Fold this protein.
Amino acid sequence: MTTLLPVMIAGVSHQQTDFENSLHELAQLAATQNYQVVAIERQMLPQVNRQTYFGTGKIKSLQAQAQATGAKLILINDELTPTQLRNLENATQYRLLDRTELILQIFAQQAHTRPAQLQVRLAQLKYQLPRIHPSNNPLDQQRGGSGFNNRGAGESQRELNKRQLRQKIQQYQKELRQLQQTFATQSQKRQQADILRVALVGYTNAGKSSTLNALLKCTPEQTAKEVLVEDQLFATLDTAVREIKVPNYPAFLISDTVGFIDKLPTLLVESFRSTLEEARQADLLVQVIDGTNPDPEAIIQTTNKILAQLEITDKPMIYAYNKADLQTAKPTNSPIGTTISYSAHNLTSVQKLLSLILQQLFASYRPLTLLVPFTEGPLINQILCNEIIRDQSYTESGIKFHLFANPKSYNKLQQWQSNL
Ligand SMILES: Nc1nc2c(ncn2[C@@H]2O[C@H](COP(=O)(O)OP(=O)(O)OP(=O)(O)O)[C@@H](O)[C@H]2O)c(=O)[nH]1
Ligand SMILES: [Mg+2]
């Protein structure tokens, strides 16, 4: 049986309307790390205290509450500056974990491939760097531990000086660059193949991976491997790309990738920049939204903000509200763009999502009727692979196609145009 560590969660609300949701999300993040929330403390302030995060008057009651409830750790709802962290730990004599460090811990636990581990490790080291200095604070000694999980990551605080950290950062960056070169080559090859790409993006646990698997199931000839689905925040850290082939349509690629969350540490966003390359190169984004979320507008805003941070902007987007089987209300106040409600657990509704994807992805294809002589074998093959075939029939003089032509091949195909 897993032992749960009692923790207190605490945050300053600085005129946030979604503060309670944000605390709730922090509790969910805590649960993934086997922390049991035994107390919640809030303070309303116009802005956080630059030295101690909470107002000084609040600190004593925070400490008293933590003691009374037996909390072993205090989780803070924001990223603390190194000064705030140190001052607040000294004042409360409690080990603190801010939202960033908690998210980094979760990512570290979920990183199973070398690129993902390196990306998380780099973010962790960069987080540690300004927070490490010789100190008499005994709490610092507890920051050791092993593996990728802790701020000290297996070495005592004293050993880890900034120079060593910088060396490690360089070493990991070099290894990651080498791995990413291989990825870039694969990605380039796909680009050369002139194949259209769709990327599933959105909040963590919204059902992106489930949606990818369901889309694969909707296409009968599909043999592609399914991706991992888990009721767990940040189950997916690596990008998976699959080909989808719908009869009579050109094949296209679809990618599933790391999910987002409010206040996703900038360090992680930067670390995962190349993992999100598929989304940057996508022709269409499908933003998967958990339709059961009480505040879908806020999660859409968060996702769009992170996409903007990654310079993934100005792309056609489908807002796909998932988990319709659990949803009580239909989406209201939909953002500008195409909206659909579906459930990844219901293939009939996923089929509708697929139709919408096809409609958006191939929106620039134009209708054309062709009569292609049987002698044009290679051209017939190209047409079958690259164009949307609506109808084909055999006549004495060749194959007659009613199709939607790729704008790139439209002019070339026009020479076979038939008015019959
Ligand atoms: N009831 C219901 N559950 C769903 C649906 N779609 C996904 N889920 C569940 O939601 C949880 C998360 O699904 P994933 O597909 O792993 O979500 P994700 O967006 O890939 O999550 P991360 O990879 O962690 O960012 C799993 O427990 C799924 O079974 C749905 O339509 N209905
Ligand atoms: Mg996933």
Q: What stands out?
A: The CA atoms of residues 280 and 311 lie 8 Å apart. Residues 366-416 form one domain. Residues 204-210, 229-236, 259, 322-323, 325-326, 343-345 surround guanosine-5'-triphosphate (ligand 1) (CB under 6 Å).
